[in-house]
């Protein structure tokens, strides 16, 4: 493949993954299925672990976060870690969502993460997430639900009724963004519909809805955009694109070195959860793996972590042709020009000169172009799992990502060539025998 054309098969796989992953729970299930198909075996956190050199394993927590690990056949001395997150900004249902208003059944929502609200209007919305039911035999069961059809919409208000609509009118998620579900409906109708959808997807007849974590999503499928297909438009590119890239790289590596892929949940709301980067999930897994291989005690674990490196992969802000002044003039990453090293002096990104130098070397070895991003000095900066993982685990870390437009929109845009660039760099990372920097 030349550097001027996208890998068609790779982009096809990416589009399929994005389409089948409308929620963090679906994304994690799809990542797990891909790993199992490649020979990784699942471990339960409640079981005793027995591991051997060369094992390929994965662990999930809350069904929405995953850690996959390739053990080397030689003694484990260092880990090459790649991190991402499964969640994206969204509109999640409230626990008692039914609203009957002016003859319509609407559903109250909570805004999850820092979502751009305006693009949610006038979209064909489906519903997806996790539901816990009581089966007809009395047992509790958690199931995934994906209603991938246009069941709801948030209509815009006509400009005739709001002449200031194009002048930066603020949006109120409580009063202005409840999706319309059914004309003439009421609360029992929602319960009936949920049961119908679960019966259709899982064959569970006569179940009772006990609890749920559900959110709306745009059912428009991902698509290539542009005369030459240079762009990929899709929901949830931040950060399912990095999840896909991380697993592709892990499966494309030789398996000779110790390699880890982690995808945490709840990054968009601060990462403070049992399955978030601020929680103990990754450290729990790595400590147990180290112990199962015969290295007990804190000293051995600290030595392992300090020989290791984490590459936090989360998308970067590409310079927007219509808003170029929002970027520092010397740090405007371009679409389809390679992965971006993200730098922030206040440690909103975890990159330092040592980790940045190693990533540049990886890109040089893999013949991959590399870019840099830093925010304007008069603007705030977002963050990633990178600084949080570095804080919790103590591992040397770098923040990188694929450049994109429209971050946190209901439909985001990235380049079709950049995923392959970052995969090549991460394969070189997973296969690198020495992580030392003199």
Automatic annotation (TrEMBL):
PANTHER family, per the entry: ASPARTYL AMINOPEPTIDASE
Pfam families: Peptidase_M18 (PF02127)
Organism classification: Bacteria, Pseudomonadati, Pseudomonadota, Gammaproteobacteria, Oceanospirillales
Group of enzyme by EC: hydrolase
Molecular function as annotated in GO: aminopeptidase activity
Record keywords: Aminopeptidase, Hydrolase, Metal-binding, Metalloprotease, Protease, Zinc
Family per similarity comment: Belongs to the peptidase M18 family.
Name listed for the protein in its UniProt record: M18 family aminopeptidase
Enzyme Commission code: 3.4.11.-
Source superkingdom: Bacteria
Organism, as annotated: Salinicola rhizosphaerae
Needed cofactors: Zn(2+)
């Amino acid at each position: 493949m030349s550097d001027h054309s996208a890998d068609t098969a790779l982009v096809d796989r990416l589009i399929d993954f994005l389409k089948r992953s409308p929620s963090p729970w679906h994304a994690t299930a799809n990542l797990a299925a891909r790993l199992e198909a490649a020979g990784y075996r699942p471990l339960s956190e409640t079981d005793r672990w027995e591991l051997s050199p060369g094992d390929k394993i994965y662990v999930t927590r809350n069904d929405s976060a995953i850690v996959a690990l390739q053990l080397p056949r030689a003694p484990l001395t260092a880990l090459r870690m790649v991190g991402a997150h499964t969640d994206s900004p969204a509109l999640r249902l409230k626990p008692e969502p039914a609203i009957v208003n002016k003859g319509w059944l609407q559903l109250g929502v909570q805004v999850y993460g820092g979502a751009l609200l305006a693009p949610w209007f006038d979209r064909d919305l489906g519903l997806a997430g996790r539901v816990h039911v009581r089966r007809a035999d009395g047992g509790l069961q958690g199931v995934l639900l994906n209603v991938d059809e246009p069941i709801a919409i948030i209509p815009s208000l006509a400009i005739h009724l709001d002449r200031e609509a194009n002048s930066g009118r603020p949006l109120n998620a409580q009063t202005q963004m409840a999706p319309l579900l059914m004309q003439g409906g009421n609360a029992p109708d929602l319960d009936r519909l949920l049961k119908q959808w679960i019966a259709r997807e899982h064959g569970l007849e006569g179940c009772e809805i006990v609890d749920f974590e559900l959110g709306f999503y745009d059912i428009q499928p991902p698509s290539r955009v542009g005369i030459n297909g240079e762009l990929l438009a899709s929901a949830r590119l931040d950060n399912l694109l990095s999840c896909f890239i991380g697993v592709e790289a892990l499966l494309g590596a030789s398996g000779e070195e110790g390699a880890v892929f982690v995808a945490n949940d709840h990054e968009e709301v601060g990462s403070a959860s049992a399955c978030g980067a601020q929680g103990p999930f990754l450290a729990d897994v790595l400590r147990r793996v180290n112990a199962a291989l015969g290295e007990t005690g804190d000293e051995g674990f600290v030595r392992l972590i300090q020989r290791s490196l984490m590459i936090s992969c989360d998308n970067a802000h590409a310079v927007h042709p219509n808003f170029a002044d929002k970027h520092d003039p010397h740090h405007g990453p371009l679409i389809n020009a390679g992965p971006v090293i993200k730098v922030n002096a206040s440690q909103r990104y975890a990159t330092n000169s040592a980790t940045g130098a190693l990533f540049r070397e990886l890109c040089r070895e893999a013949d991959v172009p590399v870019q840099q991003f830093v925010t304007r000095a008069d603007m705030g900066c977002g963050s990633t799992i990178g600084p949080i993982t570095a804080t919790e685990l103590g591992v040397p870390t770098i923040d990188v990502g694929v450049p994109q437009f429209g971050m946190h929109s209901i439909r985001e845009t990235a380049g079709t060539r950049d995923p392959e660039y970052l995969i090549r760099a991460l394969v070189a990372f997973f296969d690198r025998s020495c992580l030392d920097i003199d």
